[in-house]
Design goal:
α7 links the parallel β7 and β8. The protein is built from 23 helices and 21 strands. α17 (462-468) packs antiparallel against α18. Its main location: cytoplasm.
């Protein structure tokens, strides 16, 4: 347990999630969060439209019913509190300063708040008098909704929402509260992370307990008490390896986290940078989507380039909304992608395809899993259909598919679980009563390959399956790529709905690695280190460098300094976020950017490079 009134950090190769007390995880509320679920299932445009329609409908109904409160003491009180909270948002989303904030108060039997587009909020005041709420308690409720109003539906926005929620808690001035945060540094530049850590320290100094699940080195070093979970991930984890002050964990012989903190293990800076060829460049001119200010971007072909910059500086717009759709339309034949405004693009002759490896789910149903996504499942089914008992029964590969009738359990249609619909909440899944979660009927499960049923094979971890199928080259090669990206602990048949965004991204990366390499591919990754321990980052970098060494062009949007310092080339956007950003303020090697005083990234990168080269 963390000491009372301390800033504590849980670190380790296995990510844990806080779920009790005042839980300021990405959803911002205790338990399952309806908004978080909807954000994950819909595009940002669909979410904006949904909230706009819901807001207008709710406001119209309130006016028609005569419950819109414009002049009562409660209404004046709520609006005054909102005016106190709203200015605190500028630090977390600069473009919100230009919003036309509107706070409407509705009389009802609940205490809640709902957000609409562009800073519009409805606050329900029915329980204020009954519960005798203080201004600080009202502010805490409103702070959660302002955080949702600020969302841009991405990882940067999640951290901005964290910031607003934490700021509202400071404004509330509560004492003796335990706060639990799950990786609040996700999507934050080191400058913004420094501000967040200062805020958390202030919460602790007020007399609260702050527990943070985190991989960020600065957060771990700042903590009063560290609990390190490991020693590995999955079946190799689940133990408290070390606990104590950062210094005590640093000196613990069995702590992998401690070894990286102490420098006994480290992600090394390359001894020599790969020089760029000025004749082989991707040149994008006049990019002006969102806050981009007529940006001219040059990316060296065949190198590993990091796109950096403070939160909201325009990185995603430049790469995900401009560079990717341009190249995907030209090279992959994409027809539905929208391209942000730009003038010209040159350099396509150096590429033959583009691959965008994002953190969206690899599937939406329990039947989607790593085995089906990576192409492992087809040869596995063929192996089972080749067993003598299967041949004598006339079973083909289709018998071992849970997507078609025949061998699957029809009660759950091969899902292994039954979906229970929850009104206004995400659906939940419970094990099938007939097959007990095994997906297949009794006859299919009777067929065994090397003593294992198809269900038992799907329950194997990637590491176990790699050993089991060692004599089958087609399977062993793909399983090895999954291990290379740090996924040895997930199960072959693990439902896609249970994989984190980072895990889904690495499954996608492994599938690309298993394909034939032409050496002319543009790979784009958006914050691939999300949720990764130092050791996992090292594995990821080994893979990215391997892609680069084969002649491919790798472009990564990233805040993690361990990744940034190993890149061949940096493009730093800024100088700030929102309307004060949208410019390329520095580019060059990490050493060159570290010497540029106008670069916030360079400011944090310079001491790291000096320390690592010492």
């Amino acid at each position: 347990m963390a000491h009372p009134f301390r800033f504590a950090t849980l670190a380790g190769a296995l990510l844990l999630a806080g779920c009790q007390a005042v839980n300021t995880t990405s959803g911002g509320a205790v338990g399952v969060d309806r908004k978080q679920y909807m954000f994950s299932m819909l595009s940002s445009q669909e979410v904006d439209q949904m909230y706009a329609q819901s807001y207008q409908k709710t406001l119209g109904e309130a006016k028609s019913a005569g419950v819109l409160d414009t002049s009562s003491a409660d209404a004046r009180r709520v609006k005054a509190i909102a005016q106190r909270l709203i200015p605190q948002t500028a630090a977390f989303r600069p473009d919100a300063t230009g919003w036309n904030w509107e706070v409407n108060v509705v009389k009802s039997d609940e205490l809640n708040a709902n957000c609409g587009p562009g800073g519009k909020i409805i606050f329900y005041t029915g329980l204020i008098d009954k519960l005798k709420l203080t201004d600080d308690e009202i502010a805490a409720v409103m702070g959660h909704e302002i955080a949702h109003a600020l969302r841009e539906h991405g990882r940067e926005a999640m951290s901005k929402a964290y910031g607003v929620q934490v700021a509202s808690q400071i404004g509330a001035g509560l004492v003796g509260v335990m706060y639990i945060l799950d990786e609040p540094s996700i999507g934050l530049h080191q400058r913004d992370n420094e501000r967040l850590l200062g805020t958390l320290t202030h919460l602790r100094n007020l007399g609260n307990t702050v527990i943070v699940v985190e991989h960020d080195e600065d957060a771990i070093r700042l903590a009063d008490y560290v609990v390190d979970i490991g020693p590995g991930a999955g079946v190799h984890g689940g133990q408290v390896v070390a606990e104590g002050t950062p210094d005590q964990v640093m000196n613990h012989p069995d702590s992998l986290t401690g070894k990286y903190l102490s420098g006994r293990k480290k992600i090394a800076v390359p001894a020599k940078r790969t020089p760029r060829d000025k004749k082989k460049l991707l040149k994008l001119k006049g990019a002006r989507g969102n806050n981009l200010q007529n940006v001219n971007l040059e990316i060296p072909v065949g190198l590993f380039t990091c796109i950096t910059g403070v939160s909201g500086s325009g990185k995603s717009t430049l790469i995900n909304n401009t560079l990717f759709p341009i190249t995907a339309t030209a090279l992959n034949g994409a027809t539905t992608l929208e391209v942000a405004p730009y003038d010209s693009f040159d350099g396509l002759q150096h590429l033959d395809k583009v691959v965008d490896i994002d953190q969206s789910p690899i599937g939406r149903t329990p039947r989607s899993n790593p085995a089906t996504y990576t192409g492992l499942f087809t040869p596995i089914r063929e192996l089972f259909s080749g067993v003598p008992e299967a041949r004598s029964r006339g079973y083909g590969p289709g018998r071992f598919s849970f997507n078609v009738k025949g061998g699957r359990c029809e009660a759950c249609q091969g899902d292994g679980v039954i979906k229970v619909e929850m009104h206004f909440l995400p659906d939940i899944y419970v094990p099938c009563d007939v097959c007990k979660g095994k997906r297949y009927n009794r006859e299919t499960l009777e067929i065994r390959y090397k003593g294992k049923s198809i269900h038992e094979v799907l329950e194997m971890t990637i590491e176990e399956a790699r050993e089991f199928f060692d004599a089958v080259p087609a399977l062993a090669r793909k399983l090895q790529t999954l291990m290379d990206v740090g996924l040895s602990y997930i199960k072959l048949g693990q439902s896609a709905t249970t994989l984190s965004g980072g895990e889904a991204q690495r499954v996608k990366l492994s599938r690309e690695l298993s394909k034939r390499d032409t050496g002319k591919t543009l790979y784009i990754l958006d914050e691939p280190t999300t949720g990764l321990h130092f050791a996992d980052i090292q594995q990821l970098l080994d893979v990215l460098h391997r892609l680069r060494d084969h002649g491919n062009t790798v472009v990564v949007i990233e805040h993690n300094l361990d990744v940034i310092k190993t890149a061949d080339w940096l493009v730093d956007l800024g100088p700030e976020g929102g309307s004060k950003g949208g410019q390329i303020i520095a580019n060059g090697t990490p050493e060159q950017v570290a010497e540029m005083p106008q670069s916030h990234t360079g400011h944090f990168l310079k001491p790291l490079l000096e320390r690592d080269r010492a």
